[in-house]
Specification:
Elements (H helix, E strand, L loop, with lengths): L5 E4 L3 H11 L1 H5 L5 E4 L13 H10 L5 E5 L21 H14 L2 H7 L3 E4 H6 L6 H11 L49 H4 L5 E7 L6 H6 L8 H4 L6 H15 L1 E8 L2 E5 L46 E4 L5 E5 L2 E7 L3 E5 L2 H11 L8 H10 L10 H14 L5
Parallel strand pairs: 2-3, 2-5, 3-4, 5-6
Antiparallel strand pairs: 1-11, 6-11, 7-10, 8-9, 9-10
Length: 408
């Protein structure tokens, strides 16, 4: 582990409990409000979201009845029948709500929530109902957390060590001289924090993200923007996406101590070709490491840049068999294949560094991506892989490559 990033093999509850112990999550959350868990449920495409098994594993590690699972509505989280656009979202409010309920029922998520006494809070529902925190109160907390508008980029060691209040993305500490970068550039976002979440401020939030191509712990927080279709937050050809990711992340990182857990426990979806190794290299054996596979999206987009409805009719997800009989899945934002059983979790409090490490495992280099560059300046977290983790991450990339359907 380096720069606060925990890298672990996790295949059961005991493995995930060890990760939480490394993070000292129980200590940080002791005596606080319920732990908020942000899940990535953008679409119901196979392996693309944190499902019932993974959520059950995490909630089993948390105190019973003390978790609030949060997500916004998504125009892509549906099973077909209507096209949701930025203009017609509210007109289809009831249908979107029903599709969200159907998703949770079909995937067994409602049963998991009930078993652990966890609450489900939908950000879009709260905002559209007008149950929001005062924008000026949110602004003041963000400005207090990031008073200079730019962070001091430096290693703070393991996230699980040191004082609870230090090195956990709260913007504490000195700020480096140089370019001034606002923590939040799009001030409209101050007004979309649900009152129910604002009332839990000062507690812990877990960004429980999927290990996949193009989306990790910070991009998962982008899903707290309540619009079911977020094309306008992507901007023209994705030019605004990085700034939008950091804006909403800064707001919630000012309200909560946010830990990132990026899980690839049971399966990992890889867009493009992902990290491949030569056939016969074996699991974790030597190989060429991450290949030249692209990120799948120009800037980690969670759908089409134009803000289309994503899943659409929900049909045709399983593509025709590819070379070697492997199975590909189709989405509007790219085709992907599923790597089974990696048993990988990366976690930490420094989300920029965590995401750079997670990206490396799936064959992506994101240090120069806009959200990483802006996040480095705002949060003061290095947008690079700690040298001591280079070999570990390369081995994990080879493991995923050897399990990729191309090589089986």
């Amino acid at each position: 582990m380096g720069d606060g990033v925990v890298v672990a093999e996790v295949r059961d509850r005991a493995g995930l409990e060890r990760v939480l112990e490394e993070l000292r999550l129980a200590e940080v959350a002791a005596g606080q409000a319920p732990i908020v868990v942000k899940v990535p449920w953008f679409s119901p495409h196979p392996a693309n979201f944190v499902g019932a098994r993974e959520l059950d594993l995490l909630l089993s590690c948390l105190p019973a009845g003390r978790a609030v699972v949060v997500e916004a509505y998504s125009g892509a989280r549906n099973y077909g029948g209507r096209e949701i656009t930025p203009e017609n979202g509210r007109a289809n409010w009831e249908w979107i709500r029903e599709q969200d309920k159907l998703f949770r029922e079909r995937e067994g998520i409602n049963g998991v929530l009930a078993r652990h006494g966890a609450e489900y809070l939908n950000v879009t529902e709260e905002v559209w109902q007008g149950r929001v925190a005062p924008a000026e109160a949110v602004r003041r907390l963000v400005e207090k957390a990031y008073p200079a508008g730019t962070g001091a980029v430096a290693s703070v060691g393991r996230a699980a060590g040191g004082e609870v209040a230090g090195g956990m993305g709260l913007g504490a500490g000195a700020h480096a001289a140089g370019e001034m970068v606002p923590a939040v550039a799009q001030e409209e976002l101050y007004g979309v924090v649900p009152r129910a979440l604002f009332d839990l401020r000062g507690g812990v939030m877990v960004s429980f993200a999927k290990l996949k191509t193009g989306s990790w712990s910070l991009k998962n927080l982008f899903g707290l923007i309540p619009d079911p279709i977020r094309g306008r937050w992507h901007g023209e050809e994705g030019q605004l996406l990085g700034r939008s990711i950091i804006d909403i992340s800064a707001i919630y990182r000012a309200l909560f101590r946010v830990a990132g857990i990026v899980e690839g426990i049971y399966e990992v979806p890889l867009y493009g070709e992902g990290p491949l190794v030569e056939a016969g290299d074996g699991d974790g054996a030597g190989g060429d490491g991450p290949g030249a596979g692209g990120d799948g999206t120009a800037d980690g987009a969670d759908g089409t840049a134009s803000g289309g409805n994503g899943a659409g009719a929900g049909g045709g997800w399983a593509g025709a068999g590819g070379p070697g009989g492997r199975r590909r899945y189709h989405t509007d934002w790219g085709d992907y294949e599923v790597v089974p059983g990696p048993g990988i979790v990366l976690a930490g409090w420094q989300l920029v560094t965590l995401d750079v490490c997670a990206a490396r495992v799936v064959g992506s280099e994101i240090s120069e991506r806009s959200f990483a560059r802006i996040g480095e300046k705002v949060f003061g977290e290095p947008a690079c892989v700690p040298p001591e983790l280079e070999a570990t991450l390369a081995a994990l990339a080879r493991r995923i490559g050897s399990r990729h359907p191309c090589n089986r």
